[in-house]
Specification:
Elements: E1 14-16, E2 30-34, E3 37-40, E4 45-48, H1 57-85
Antiparallel strand pairs: 1-4, 2-3, 3-4
């Protein structure tokens, strides 16, 4: 799992690993892989973290789950509306 853009001499903020999911359309599930690195288990989007002000992994995962549940409810409602109209 090597970060992209390793040829650059500038420090990286974000890095990606190739997966089938586009990071722009992923409902991220973050995990901490080291003290300073976070990665999404689904799409491979990763970033470097500041140990002095750590990224709230558990809270972000909880918010992502809640948002996904809300989106699923809205999809079901829109399907019901479309079926009623037909």
């Amino acid at each position: 799992m090597n970060p992209k853009n390793t040829d650059s001499k500038e420090p990286l903020e974000f890095y990606e690993h190739t997966t089938n999911i586009d990071p722009n359309f992923c409902d991220h599930r973050f995990t901490r892989i080291s003290v300073t690195r976070i990665i999404c288990k689904r799409c491979g989007l990763g970033f470097f973290d500041n140990p002095q002000s750590p990224f709230p992994v558990e809270e972000m995962n909880r918010l992502a789950r809640e948002q996904k549940q809300e989106n699923d409810k809205l999809k079901e409602k829109s399907k019901e509306v479309v079926e009623k109209e037909e």
